[in-house]
């Protein structure tokens, strides 16, 4: 089998430009509401030039999701089996909250994909994501069996961390509308609240 031809510096730069532009467009308009023309304009490339790298909108979207999935799973991978259970879970929660703060477009991109039934990443959800969540849920269940944290459903504990942290990215407009201009940064109070919530819930 022939080895893939290495990309040139210009090709790498243009793919990065397209990816950045696509992230902005897809996270704003969703997959269905986005067009190749919008992405090309955002990337400051001609449409034919963009299509040289990606043959379709679907190809760009799939590339984005697949390359971002590893980044999205890293905080859960970092949960240390040998660490202090409560501190590991709180650290995971903090990392997820920080990702919502630092990468809101990525969060909305995934949210839009899931709402549509995950047509482009369902296989990844059913394999890579499921295997990782099952593995970490087993670790959490072991901590509970040892009496080191209070008992709860490990999978739903992970789901609750996702929903309570990603909310601040996916519903950013709603959060700021409700809190008002006197609270322009919701994250410090959000972190303090979530630390209290999970500490009270998980302390034996």
TrEMBL record:
Residues 35-54 bind DNA. It comes from the Bacteria. Gene3D superfamilies: Homeodomain-like (1.10.10.60), Tetracycline Repressor, domain 2 (1.10.357.10). InterPro entries: Homeodomain-like_sf, HTH-type_TetR-like_transc_reg, HTH_TetR, Tet_transcr_reg_TetR-rel_C_sf, Tscrpt_reg_YcdC_C. Pfam families: TetR_C_3, TetR_N. PROSITE patterns: HTH_TETR_2 (PS50977). One of its GO terms (molecular function) is transcription cis-regulatory region binding. One of its GO terms (biological process) is negative regulation of DNA-templated transcription. Keywords: DNA-binding. Residues 12-72 form the HTH tetR-type domain. The keyword Lipoprotein does not apply. Coiled coil: none annotated. PANTHER family: HTH-TYPE TRANSCRIPTIONAL REGULATOR RUTR. This is TetR family transcriptional regulator. It comes from Pseudooceanicola albus. The lineage of its organism: Bacteria, Pseudomonadati, Pseudomonadota, Alphaproteobacteria, Rhodobacterales.
């Amino acid at each position: 089998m022939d080895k893939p031809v290495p990309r040139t510096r210009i090709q790498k730069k243009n793919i990065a430009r397209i990816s950045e532009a696509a992230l902005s467009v897809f996270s704003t308009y969703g997959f269905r509401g986005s067009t190749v023309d919008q992405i090309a304009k955002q990337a400051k490339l001609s449409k034919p030039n963009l299509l040289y790298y990606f043959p379709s909108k679907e190809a760009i979207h799939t590339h984005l999701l697949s390359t971002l999935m590893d980044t999205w799973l890293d905080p859960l991978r970092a949960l240390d089996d040998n660490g202090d259970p409560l501190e590991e879970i709180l650290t995971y929660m903090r990392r997820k909250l920080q990702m919502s703060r630092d990468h809101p477009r990525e969060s909305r991109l995934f949210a839009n994909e899931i709402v549509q039934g995950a047509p482009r990443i369902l296989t990844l959800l059913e394999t890579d994501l499921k295997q990782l969540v099952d593995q970490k849920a087993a670790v959490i269940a072991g901590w509970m069996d040892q009496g080191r944290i209070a008992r709860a459903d490990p999978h739903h504990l992970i789901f609750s961390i996702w929903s309570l942290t990603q909310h601040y990215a996916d519903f950013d407009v709603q959060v700021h509308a409700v809190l008002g201009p006197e609270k322009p940064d919701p994250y410090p109070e959000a972190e303090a609240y979530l630390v209290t919530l999970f500490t009270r819930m998980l302390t034996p």
